[in-house]
């Protein structure tokens, strides 16, 4: 086994050396976190990493089983696994989608151990009135800043999140790297942190406080920060609330196929063109943080709609499809769904990278590779 591991290490050494030139915004980022960011940069041009929210927790007609709708259709897990911190701020035992945090932590660990990438959004409840993240009845954000009426409660929320994030460790005891996507869809007006209930300066101050507190006070150094907007129509719209290069590692947006397919393709292309330019100027990776087509009524959506959009942007890092909650609400095909065959073709064509096409070494470095191969027979 040792000989095989050493052989794989030597075989991949050119990729390892190339992968070390990208630097996280956190100067104290852990070894595996640095490897993840630099490996994502190295993989640019090889295909976009494919992700699915809550992929191994539940799907269409199943829950908390050893399963995955994506894997059942393609034969491979996704490369990126989306999760939600919502509920941790209330000290709840389960998240917004009723996944026990103990189960979520196990699934995050399993994804990491097989070389997958984990990303977290946070539908944080409104700290001012206890309502959901969709509550926009007041100027919540301003009250969470230092000196604000609910600043100390917000700190408690961050303490609880940090405590949980620090429990997410690999089998070697190392912190599992996380793509951390706070205040997502920030250019929208449907969350308490959106543009309708705060000024750009207030948003930037809260973002910076949040990242600084997690890094400097709570010593959480396994986070790669993702700045994730909703719609935008100009560079100004995209950057009006940008907290600065020292607080961001990836830039992205959420965009769904709600309107006609032609409208979706037009909007995706417009936003990706702007994002590519801005991310390049700021020396950041870029992604589609959320997308999808609920119910996937077009059986050829994957190869005729999504793939042509992706093919125009060969440095796009990853995309994440939203969750499969059940037969009335799903975004990835399941066995027997109308687009399942087309999704398998999308997988086979190689424009998107799934788990099976990633080596753990390519993502987390040699230490992870050696442990990953501990069960390989000579």
Mean pLDDT: 92
Secondary structure class reads: alpha/beta
Instruction: Summarize the helix and strand pattern as letters.
Output: HHHEEEHEHEHHEHEHEHEHEHEHH
Rg over CA atoms, rounded to whole Å, is: 20 Å
Task: Please state roughly what percent of the residues sit in beta strands, choosing from under 5%, 5-15%, 15-25%, 25-35%, 35-45% or over 45%.
Answer: 5-15%
Strand tally, please? 11
Distance between the termini: 5 Å
- Superfamily (CATH H level) name: Glycosidases
Poorly predicted runs are 4-11, 13-20, 374-378
Helix content: 25-40%
Shape: globular
According to CATH, what is the class? Alpha Beta
Count of discrete domains: 1
Biggest sheet overview: 8 strands, parallel, barrel
> Helix count?
14
CATH architecture: Alpha-Beta Barrel
CATH fold-level assignment: TIM Barrel
Strand order of the largest sheet: 1-4-5-6-7-8-9-10
How would you describe this structure to a colleague?
- This protein is of the alpha/beta class and 378 residues long.
- The protein has one domain (2-372): Alpha-Beta Barrel (TIM Barrel), CATH 3.20.20.
- Helices cover 38% and strands 13% of the residues.
- It has helices at 2-11, 13-18, 31-42, 69-74, 101-113, 140-144, 151-165, 200-217, 235-239, 261-281, 301-311, 340-349, 360-364, 366-372; strands at 48-53, 58-59, 62-63, 80-84, 117-121, 178-181, 223-229, 250-254, 285-291, 318-321, 352-353.
- Helix 11 (301-311) runs parallel beside helix 12 (340-349).
- The longest helix is centred in the last third of the chain and has 21 residues, at 261-281.
């Amino acid at each position: 086994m040792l000989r095989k591991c050493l052989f794989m290490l030597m075989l991949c050494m050119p990729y390892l050396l190339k992968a070390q030139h990208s630097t996280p915004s956190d100067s104290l980022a852990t070894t595996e976190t640095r490897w993840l960011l630099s490996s994502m940069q190295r993989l640019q041009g090889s295909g976009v990493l494919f992700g699915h929210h809550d992929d191994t927790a539940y799907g269409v007609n199943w829950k908390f089983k050893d399963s995955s709708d994506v894997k059942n259709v393609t034969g491979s897990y996704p490369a990126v696994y989306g999760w939600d911190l919502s509920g941790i701020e209330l000290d709840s035992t389960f998240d917004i989608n009723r996944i026990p945090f103990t189960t979520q932590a196990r699934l995050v660990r399993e994804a990491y151990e097989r070389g997958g990438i984990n990303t977290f959004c946070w539908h944080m409840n409104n700290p001012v009135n206890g309502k959901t993240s969709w509550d926009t009845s007041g100027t919540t954000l301003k009250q969470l800043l230092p000196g604000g009426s609910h600043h100390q409660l917000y700190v408690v929320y961050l303490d609880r999140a940090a405590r949980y994030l620090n429990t997410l460790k690999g089998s070697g005891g190392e912190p599992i790297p996380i793509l951390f996507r706070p205040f997502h869809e920030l250019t929208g007006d449907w969350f308490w942190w959106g543009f309708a209930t705060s000024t750009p300066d207030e948003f930037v101050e809260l973002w910076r406080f949040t990242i600084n507190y997690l890094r400097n006070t709570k010593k959480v150094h396994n986070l790669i920060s993702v700045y994730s907007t909703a719609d935008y129509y100009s560079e100004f719209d995209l950057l009006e609330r940008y907290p600065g290069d020292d607080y961001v590692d990836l830039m992205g947006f959420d965009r769904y196929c709600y309107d006609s397919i032609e409208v979706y393709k037009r909007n995706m292309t417009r936003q990706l063109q702007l994002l590519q330019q801005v991310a390049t100027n700021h020396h950041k990776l870029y992604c589609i943080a959320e997308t999808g087509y609920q119910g996937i009524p077009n059986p050829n959506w994957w190869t005729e709609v999504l793939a042509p959009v992706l093919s125009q942007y060969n440095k796009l890092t990853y995309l994440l499809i939203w969750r499969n909650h059940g037969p009335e609400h799903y975004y990835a095909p399941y066995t027997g769904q109308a687009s399942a065959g087309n999704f398998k073709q999308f997988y086979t064509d190689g424009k998107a990278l799934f788990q099976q096409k990633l080596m753990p070494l390519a993502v987390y470095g040699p230490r992870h590779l050696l442990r990953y191969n501990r069960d390989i027979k000579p």
